[in-house]
Amino acid sequence: MALFKYLMRINQADLSDEIMCACSGTTRGQIYELVMQGKDFEAISRWTGVNTGCSGCEWDVQVFVNALTEMKVEVKSTK
User: Fold this and answer.
1) Over residues 8-30, mean pLDDT
2) Longest dimension (CA), the chain
3) What is the pTM of this model?
4) How does residue 9 score in pLDDT terms, banded at 50, 70 and 90?
5) Which candidate, 7, 1, 9, places its Cα nearest to that of 63?
6) Which whole number is the average pLDDT over 64-75?
7) Which DSSP string corresponds to 40-73?
8) For position 16, what pLDDT does the model report?
9) Distance, first Cα to last Cα, the chain
10) Going by C-beta distance under 8 Å and a sequence separation of 6 or more, which residues neighbour residue 12?
11) Pairing of strands 19-21, 26-27
12) Is 11 helix (H, G, I), strand (E, B) or coil?
């Protein structure tokens, strides 16, 4: 639930514009779209290059992916 609350604090502009991985230039919006397609952290890393450079983004990206995944599960279970 904490991850879901974290995700809800992020406004929509951040999703499309904020760079989460400086090495690959990957944005929150790109990661959001990939999670919505069913990709996990490892797949996103392979697809975008996230966490393959300095690895400084690993924690932030992992928390974001976990929050999005949790949100998807909660939305599916309420339908």
Assistant:
1) 79
2) 40
3) 0.76
4) low
5) 7
6) 83
7) -HHHHHHHH-TTSSS-TTHHHHHHHHHHHHHHHH
8) 76
9) 18
10) none
11) antiparallel
12) coil
DSSP letter (8 states) at residue 39:
-
For residue 1, give both structure tokens.
């639930």
Coil, helix or strand at residue 32: helix
- The two tokens of residue 37 are 């397609």
The helix/strand count (H/E) of the chain reads as: 5, 2
Structure tokens at 28: 């929150």
Q: Does the pLDDT value for residue 70 go beyond 90?
A: no
* Residue 76 clears pLDDT 80, i.e. is over it: no
Residue 35 three-state SS: helix
In angstroms, rounded to a whole number, what is the distance separating the alpha carbons of residues 51 and 24?
8
Question: Any idea which residue has 């991850």 for tokens?
Answer: 3
Task: Please give the backbone phi and psi of residue 21, each rounded to the nearest 5 degrees, phi first.
Answer: -130, 110
